[in-house]
Design brief:
With 348 residues, this protein is an alpha/beta fold. The protein contains 14 helices and nine strands. Helix content is 44%, strand content 12%. It binds S-adenosyl-L-homocysteine.
Length: 348
């Protein structure tokens, strides 16, 4: 207990621990330590962002994917997945709806779908930015070339989310097919940073084969990379994957890590993810209380939502539905936080 408290104090002060120290903290967690950690994370978050919560409108543009990530429900090899793609017109109307609801960031996420060429996306980005100059656009479309990322940035994309998935190459290989490359994923992250994007990395908590040593490596990676955003959420099995019978990650562990990540990199934009809201009714609130300051409700057309099934029972209704922003506001107000209409850039 004492040693853990000391480690939390050290992390709070220096934003860094050794690999062994991270692992000790993870292996010896208790509700007391979690509470202590959460208080520190809350303090740090308030210094940077006060009680403000940023909202992002998530638009799932396509579930077509050339990759076959072992954990993912929309993996290319899943013949049970009914595929869809949103047209430019569809996407623009999602933005319009989102803007009216008070969203000032649109996140375009999808599988790695060759249909969305640079020219398609550049033209779309220019239209979105011309119509909504006060909004940020975040892309989350997987691995692309340096040139492609550069073109999209020049066309107006502000941010890019690309979870590193696993900082341990050994674990990365157990979660991905042989034709996917750990090195390329990491290279993409550094390319994005060099080009000038606000960049997000991240990983699943409780993924199959994942140990606390692997997570300690993720934390070390985050320390070094200093992402502007970091998406972490519990792994949740999907029925059409080889991991269908694996155990899901927990709210408790995810929240513990959210607090640690807030202390590692105080200005980080940290979402309480949909996966966290899916495994527990209060997941979102727990995430916020642990140091998260972003939520990403769903703006996708209703019929697309159920097809964008990354894992079983993925929420897209209730608090995950962008149209229910009022309810979300109410729930966060009850725990002392305020949803703001703001682009919500990272504080440098
Ligand atoms: N194709 C894009 C977007 C991927 S989907 C890309 O490569 O970045 C967004 C995230 O969902 C993934 O990065 C992954 O970490 C998460 N995810 C996928 N399957 C999941 C599952 N079964 N449980 C929890 N999270 C999952």
């Amino acid at each position: 207990m004492n040693k853990s408290i000391q480690l939390v104090d050290k992390l709070y002060k220096f934003h860094s621990l050794t690999l062994e120290e991270y692992q000790y903290l993870l292996d010896n967690r208790s509700s007391e330590i979690a509470l202590y950690l959460r208080k520190k994370a809350d303090k740090v978050r308030r210094e940077y962002y006060g009680n403000k919560i940023f909202i992002r409108g998530l638009i799932e543009i396509s579930n077509v994917c050339k990759n076959d990530c072992l954990y993912c429900g929309i993996r290319g090899g899943n013949v049970n997945c009914e595929r869809y793609r949103l047209s430019e017109k569809n996407i623009l109307s999602c933005c319009e709806n989102g803007y009216e609801l008070g969203f000032r960031t649109f996140v375009l996420q999808g599988g790695e779908d060759g249909f969305y060429t640079d020219s398609f996306l550049c033209s779309l980005l220019k239209k979105i930015k011309a119509k909504y100059p006060d909004c940020a656009v975040t892309l989350s479309l997987g691995e692309r070339s340096y040139e492609s990322y550069k073109k999209l940035f020049s066309a107006g994309a502000d941010r890019y989310l690309l979870r590193h998935e696993a900082a341990s190459e050994e674990l990365y290989k157990k979660l991905h097919p042989e034709n996917m490359s750990y090195r390329n994923r990491i290279k993409c992250l550094y390319d994005l940073k060099e080009i000038g994007y606000q960049v997000g990395c991240g990983f699943m908590v409780g993924a199959p084969f994942q140990t606390t040593k692997h997570i300690a490596e993720d934390l070390k990676f985050i320390e070094g990379f200093k992402p502007d955003m970091c998406g972490i959420g519990p792994f949740i099995p999907h029925k059409d994957t080889v991991f269908k019978n694996e155990k899901a990650g927990s709210v408790e562990f995810t929240c513990f890590l959210l607090s640690i990540i807030r202390l590692i990199h105080p200005p980080v934009l940290l979402p309480a993810t949909t996966a966290l809201g899916t495994i527990s009714e209060n997941g979102r609130e727990e995430g916020i209380l642990s140091g998260a300051n972003v939520v990403m409700p769903n703006l996708s057309p209703t019929d697309a939502r159920e097809k964008y099934s990354l894992y079983d029972n993925k929420l897209s209704t209730g608090l995950e539905n962008a149209s229910n922003k009022k309810e979300l506001e109410e729930r966060f107000k009850n725990i002392g936080f305020e949803i703001v209409t703001d682009k919500g850039d990272v504080k440098k």
